[in-house]
Design brief:
CATH class: Alpha Beta
Strand content: 15-25%
CATH topology: Ubiquitin Conjugating Enzyme
Number of domains: 1
Structural class: alpha+beta
Number of helices: 2
Largest sheet: 6 strands, antiparallel
CATH architecture: Roll
Order of helices and strands: HEEEEEEH
Length: 122
């Protein structure tokens, strides 16, 4: 089960994830860098069925910390509603850069390094 594998790897990094349903997981995250540094948020991810061949897509973030702007093209790209996670969530359309995933070990640690980068560049 890809979702459980992802959760197990998150646990080894010190995160405690819960399954919302199917492949959707949520966990507490303290932002380490950037303008939201030290803010406690919840991150939600859709773990793909072909994990670890492919990483999760963009981030689901709660509470909403960026304005909803579905037409934006700059970092973090489009910020949209996240109805699959709930009314207090927003979706950052910022998937792992194409072609870069294959250059990693394809582990949760690699994905979380990317998450840290997203927040540090805010």
């Amino acid at each position: 089960m890809p979702t459980q594998e992802f959760i197990d790897e998150l646990n080894t990094l010190g995160y405690q994830a819960e399954v919302l349903n199917d492949n959707k997981i949520v966990f507490d995250y303290v932002v380490l860098d950037g303008k939201f540094k030290d803010q406690s948020i919840k991150l939600g991810l859709d773990v793909p069925q072909d994990w670890n061949l492919n990483p999760p897509g963009g981030l689901h973030v709660s509470p909403r910390i960026l304005p909803i702007n579905p037409n934006e093209t700059s970092h973090p790209a489009r910020v949209a509603e996240s109805p699959n996670f709930g009314p207090d969530w927003e979706y950052w359309s910022r998937p792992f850069p194409p072609g870069e995933w294959a250059k990693t070990k394809r582990a949760v640690r690699d994905y979380m390094r990317y998450v840290r980068h997203l927040f540090s560049t805010q």
